[in-house]
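Protocol step 4 of 5: obtain the predicted structure for the target chain.
Materials: sequence only (see below). No template structures provided, no constraints applied. The aim of this step is simply to have a reference model before the mutagenesis design in step 5. Sequence pasted as it appears in the construct record:
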Amino acid sequence: MNAITRWDPLKEMEEMQNRLSNLLGRAPARLGDAKEESITVAEWAPLVDITEDDKEYVIKTELPEIKKEDVKVAVENGLLTIVGERKFEKEENKKYHRVERAYGRFVRSFVLPDGADAEKVNAEFKDGVLKVHLPKSEKTKPKQIEVKVA
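Step 4 output (structure tokens):
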């Protein structure tokens, strides 16, 4: 006997997204089926903003509840790497109903722009925000050239 099942196009799209995420090595966006509440699973990769001005590139990374000692910044072979860990500290005598924030180790890597001076990279950590400064080398800074009319 064949069972009739109801077609849910959104569920199929979600399953396809999960299969693609697995293929690309990422955590699925949601877990669960239509009968249960879906639980969002966060892939632990802190968010960044990358800006540029005439003097430098700045990578600003949000790292809430992470200690300065738990973050490492390294530059090697044209690659800037930020490594760290947010530790889960379970409090006794508390019943957790939901834990959605991501915990554990993370790694973010960025290829240095051609104009960045890898020897002068520096970083500062304040109020849960890591700022990595990538100064531009002298040869890549824009120069104003006066045009003379004859």
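Step 4 remarks: The beta strands are 30-31, 39-40, 48-52, 56-62, 71-76, 79-86, 104-111, 122-126, 129-135. The helical segments are 9-23.
Proceed to step 5.
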